[in-house]
Write the structure tokens for this entry.
Amino acid sequence: MNPLLTKLHPYPFERLRQLFAGTVPNPAYSPISLGMGEPKHATPHFIQQAMVDAIYSTPSGLAAYPATAGEPKLREACCQWLQRRYGLSLNPATQVLPVNGSREALFALAQTVVTPSPTGQAAPLVVCPNPFYQIYEGAALLAGAEPYFVASDPARNFAADWDSVPEAVWARTQLLFVCSPGNPTGAVMPLAEWQKLFALSDRYGFVIASDECYSEIYFRAEPPLGGLEAAAQLGRADFKNLIAFTSLSKRSNVPGMRSGFVAGDAALIKPFLLYRTYHGSAMSPVVQSASIAAWGDEAHVVDNRAQYRSKFAQVTPILAEVLDVALPDAGFYLWARVQGDDAAFARELHALYNVTVLPGSYLARDGQGGNPGSQRIRMALVAETAECVEAAQRIVQFVTSRT
């Protein structure tokens, strides 16, 4: 067996399952899960229909192997969306690549980018925010690198403190993962932060992987700034050492389709395509057809965003009565401070009120000052509004009963 597998930490939801083992939720309450970030809004019918139509109406249907690079029409649809959303003009043949969801692509990019060190030499580093999406860590470890977790500042919505990273760390860094809007905080990186990271990338030569899967769910007037958009504004039209990841899962409520794309530096896209060709990562033709339909329509995205805005407007004030919590910039998570141990909070809440939340410490690693997710919980407001409101009311009861 690959010895690097032994370095992987249990996934947060496996830890949650173990946390709840042996407890019996109060049968007086129906179960409500705010634990997993899985969209629950209805998938638009036109996307489902596009997939069904593709099975019967395309010449090959399911009777031919798809190309790893995807159909030209899909890459063009992705570029058209980038033009409408960010005002960018990318080459669909060299700067865009369809992927089977951002999760697998984030993992695969590390396998493409990281150059393992010879035996006896220090391993390369992959720098990650903290808290973070656990795929970043697993991708780094299985690529033969070591993850380095950047200290975060709770006073600035857990923004990464890039100035705290020693020069010796940057010198060994081959890949930097960033997430904006962030998971779990919902924070959006401003242009000045991007400028700092681009300067560091130019100096030390590392690749920046920008995870932007929550970009279309936001609560401010202006949509979140994207990594490619920031690069263009700063005169980096070639997107040197930058790859952005986006997905239809949250934007269009199709997590089961596993569809997204990466875009950016053509010099990175080319070897990434080579890796994916051997890895067997081609997207199904019917998923490609449905994806073309989804990327071409914004009306359903506007409606989806309105549903989240209404939901958060109702739920956040309820929870703010008893928790330190506020409306995020974007995304569909509430990142709340709780009294005492966050895992104990989640376990007791589940047992007494049948509401599932994710302990914040499961989304972070120990660093300077301890675990930045400690005494925090992440709540995914993905269910229908009435169910989320009911969950919030139960949480209020639970917190009130503990004080």
